[in-house]
Amino acid sequence: MHAGDPSASSSSSSSQPSQRDWAEMRPLASGGVTLLNAHFTQHRFERHSHEAYSIGVTRSGVQTFACRGARHASLAGDVILFNPDEPHDGSRGTDAGFGYSILYVDAALVHAWMGDRDAAGGGGDGNRMATRYFKAPLVHDPEGALLLQQAVAAVAERQESLHGEERTAAAMVALLGRHGELRRPWAATGLDAGRQRMSLVREYLDAHFADDVTVQALATQAGLSRAHLTRAFTATYGMAPHAYLNMVRIRQAQAALRRGGALADVAAACGFADQSHLTRRFKGQVGVAPARWLAQMQSG
Fold first, then answer.
1. Domain annotation for the chain: domains and CATH numbers
2. Which residues pair with 64 in a beta bridge?
3. Could you report the per-residue pLDDT of 159-189, keeping only the tens digit for each?
4. Torsion of CA 174, 175, 177, 180, to 10 degrees
5. Region Disordered: which residues (predicted)?
6. Which pTM value belongs to this model?
7. How far is residue 127's CA from residue 120's CA, in Å, rounded to a whole number?
8. How far is it, in rounded angstroms, from Cα 89 to Cα 67?
9. Is the pLDDT confidence value at 10 over 50?
10. Distance between CA 92 and CA 73 in Å, rounded?
């Protein structure tokens, strides 16, 4: 909502597309923060996660998503809080659809704002492990929502990067202070034998994203049967191996596109059957087509 998804301000509403489903992204010029403003009536996000923290507010309608083993419904004014690498999906809760704004904030910035000196050390999963986490993915917090809306408005303003980062920091620190804790609540943190096996599988997917990966190849890495592999991976990471592989491919494609790669070449290099396959998966996770996403990210 991961995919990779800001509050509509007067400066951005005039440029919003006229179609019923629209999404506009704006990166902060100083880096580390990206804003997404969107409204969807038909689009459904595939299961995915973000490398960054994601803090959002539902502006209108009902936004539903599955996260941490439960289905959640976010109403207008509710605050959505996703930790880095926290799997979720997203879709409308009513025929009217939903509008929302969300800020994606790099973990390194959050650690600096929170004064986390041990952030680089990580923990059991190395640099995948942050130090502070949101306890719940959905909260009703009018004061927090107001701070978040102020951050969204500031990031949306051109030539106001300093103000945007200051407001984002204020919102993030407040939300983590109210709704955060110093442990990962949605997944096991210990490196037991089972988790070590799944870590090997994830590393294999990270390294072989361009290949046509088979369940047997993953089962061999884990030393498990093919039937057990998918269940064990999903139980550990909250998404099936194919969903994780698609997510890795999309992240690789985003990086390649920003380096100037042609869409067809990027599709081939990142494990997609063709350009159409990339576009379909990209929209499923990010909410917009690759070319539109790239144009928005470059115009920010």
1. 10-181 (2.60.120.10), 193-299 (1.10.10.60)
2. 73, 91
3. 899 999 999 999 999 999 999 988 654 444 4
4. -170
5. 1-22
6. 0.82
7. 7
8. 7
9. no
10. 9
In angstroms, what is the C-alpha Rg of the chain? 19
Structure tokens at 170: 């204020």
Question: ∠ at Cα 154 (152, 26), nearest 5°?
Answer: 65
Query: What gap in Å lies between CA 23 and CA 206, rounded to an integer?
Result: 28
Q: What is the pLDDT of residues 273-300, one digit of tens each?
A: 999 999 999 999 999 999 999 999 998 6
β-bridge mates for residue 99, sequence order: 39, 60
Torsion of CA 88, 174, 164, 39, to 10 degrees: 30
- Residues with Cβ < 8 Å from 298, sequence gap 6 or more? none
| Token pair belonging to 33 | 């923060």
Q: Indicate whether 6 pLDDT > 50.
A: no
Kindly give the interhelix angle for 290-299 and 241-258, rounded to the nearest 10 degrees: 50
Tokens for 74, please give them. Answer: 């976010």
